[in-house]
Design goal:
142 residues; alpha+beta; Defensin A-like; four-stranded antiparallel sheet; three-stranded antiparallel sheet; elongated
Length: 142
């Protein structure tokens, strides 16, 4: 095989590889919603919790479990999609810190840094699959 044929094969293979990559979505880090925190009596509420979970493509029960386990506090989801953390006014900075940890550990792609990922469970193993670059890797369970 001569050099010209190798280059043609290389170009064809490269085009085929690019065609198989998933479409890159336009989500940026600034698309991540901030926490809307309110204090009602002795409880802390995250008002836009359902919107955050929808944007991050995560089940609200899983995200709630992460927050409540990290804080060591009881809580619940309302029908309106608000997360209520009972019996304590938690500082905004503390909640934002846990939110950032969640994003880094369970949302952002380790390969390309995109937030367009899916959380997949197969048996007892949890995976993150990036919709931007196609990378898949395991993570520890929540």
């Amino acid at each position: 095989m001569n050099e010209l044929e190798l280059l043609k094969n290389y170009d064809a293979l490269l085009e085929r590889a690019y065609a198989r990559l998933p479409a890159k979505l336009s989500a940026k880090a600034y698309d991540i919603p901030d926490l809307e925190i309110e204090y009602v009596g002795n409880h802390t509420e995250i008002k836009n919790f359902a919107h955050i979970c929808d944007r991050l493509r995560r089940d609200p029960q899983i995200v709630m479990r992460y927050f409540l386990k990290s804080l060591g506090m009881p809580g619940a989801l309302t029908e309106r999609g608000t997360l209520i953390i009972y019996n304590k006014k938690i500082k905004r900075d503390t909640l934002k810190q846990f939110y950032q940890r969640f994003l880094n550990k369970y949302v952002k792609c380790q390969t390309c840094g995109s937030i367009d990922t899916e959380l997949i469970r197969k048996g007892k193993v949890w995976y993150i699959r990036c919709l931007a670059c196609g990378a898949t890797y395991t993570i520890e369970p929540i």
